[in-house]
């Protein structure tokens, strides 16, 4: 969320900079760094403020590996918003499709899917829409509302086992931070319960003391709890069955 939100802020600035609309011709993840939580461009050698000239719409053809676009040619003989559209689609294919929908709370996934699809389709005013939507989805009020919904909807009972870990009983899920198990990030215990309830094979989960760079806690989801071992840095929750 934070990386994508920071990138949307950058895209909005590039589209409305004092120099005009700026495009990054070499738009790749390695050209960016994170400084104090904000995404920054490190290489401006391939930045350009020149909109492509044209005599017809066919001159405004943009080709990408997955799909192509044709933009309108303005009466001034310039391809309309080509710089902005190039940045936007590159942001979609290098960042948004990989980062935005995955491990998001289920209540936010329809909104995030809509944002990703709109970006990939070059919908009008999509940058402003994304900015507002992402600001909303990362606000404390939305996180609080999501937490309350989880607390109300969590009907399954779990037994809390402090200082305990389940070393085996792994299953694979996507997306996972661990290639041999199901390791996901959560906002709190309530979200972990919702995720475990959504997987038929999940019978327990383990809260670790590790977090992502945005502060979300990493949790192992397990398909059984037959073998629990002591671990002072973890807390295990076991699904209670009748």
UniProtKB/TrEMBL annotation:
Keywords recorded for this protein, A-Z? Kinase, Transferase
* Family annotation (Pfam families): PIP49_C (PF12260)
Keyword Flavoprotein found = no
Cite a single GO BP annotation: skeletal system development
Q: Name one GO cellular component term.
A: extracellular region
Question: What is the annotated signal peptide range for this record?
Answer: none
MF GO annotations: non-membrane spanning protein tyrosine kinase activity
Kindly indicate whether the keyword Transferase belongs to this entry: yes
In this protein, which residues make up the domain named FAM69 protein-kinase?
2-118
State the protein's name: PKDCC kinase
Specify the species: Promerops cafer
